[in-house]
Amino acid sequence: MSDTPGKRAWMCLLCGWVYYEALGLPEEGIAPGTPWEEIPDTWECPACGASKEDFVMEQL
User: Fold this and answer.
1) Which of 8, 40, 52, 54 is least crowded, fewest Cβ atoms below 10 Å from its Cβ?
2) Hey, what domains does the chain have and what are their CATH numbers?
3) Signal peptide position in this chain (predicted)?
């Protein structure tokens, strides 16, 4: 598992959607390589609307 910011993945515990830091989320203005910590706390899962605190770091 990578614990290097910009190279991690975070999975939504409610729906399983995964945010890959290396890919970012350009359609929401989040550039590739954006570490999880830099995403606003008000951000929500694009698939189910879960809050950022409902995500856990996943093994790559």
Assistant:
1) 40
2) 9-58 (2.20.28.10)
3) none
Containing H/E element for 57?
Answer: strand 55-58
Single-letter amino acid, residue 34: T
β-strand partners of 22? none
**Cα separation, 21 vs 38, whole angstroms:** 10
Q: Which of 60, 47, 37 has the alpha carbon at shortest distance from 13? A: 47
Which tokens hold the place of 38? 């830099």
